[in-house]
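Hi,

Apologies if this is the wrong queue. I'm a grad student, and the batch job for Chemotaxis protein MotB from Clostridium tagluense produced an output file that my downstream script rejects. I'm not sure whether the problem is my script or the file. Here is the sequence I used:
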Amino acid sequence: MSRKKNGGDEMRTDAWLATFADTMTLLLTFFVLLYSFSTVDAAKFKQIASSLQSVLTGETGTSILEFNVKNGEVPLVGEPMPTTTPSKDTQDIYEKVQSFIKKQKLEGTVVIKSDSRGVIIQLKANILFQSGKAEIIDNSKPVLNSINGLISTLPNDIVIEGHTDSLPISNFEYKNNWQLSSARALNVLEYFVTVKKQPYPARFKSIACAEYQPIVPNINETNRALNRRVNILIVASEKEATKK
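Support response: The file is valid. Your script probably expects a header line. Output copied below for reference.
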């Protein structure tokens, strides 16, 4: 009787192997199915495998973290953003704007940036407008007058961009942030062209961006204040640079 009990225990102990084998088979089938849906670059897969082997065996060489599946040249972790060399026109404009802003002592009022389009003079919305409004406040006009003097010396096209934060607006004047950002950009444009009599109005245009081009996440009031802004873009052009 004792032997029968022991034999029964052994049978019950080994029973889990069947369930385990079935589970492994199903997992293998699942991964084979996933693999069949994917496309693998054989050369990159071989290089990744080689790099992984080097790391595991302690050999020197290219680390797996130094391999980029896109081109195999730059790190996957902390990958640097691609950079472009500013055009000569952009560099010249940036230096001129920077020098002008320093002379006018506007460093605490405006921010100067550049991108592939040209040079940007960025003004916070609270400097130009009251909350939820698009009328230019009188205290900001000396700043706009200074910027008007600067752009009067440049032949480049000027684009006025209106930006808001992500909080929705709905009042008797503006139904949404598109309308608010459009009105703000247009009022700054009209101030330069109509009030200050810019001689070549055809080179000016205004753009409404609403909340869709934030410079920081709209997660708190400090960030939202940074996103509420008007950009005065001085468009760079190599053709114009060659005319000088």
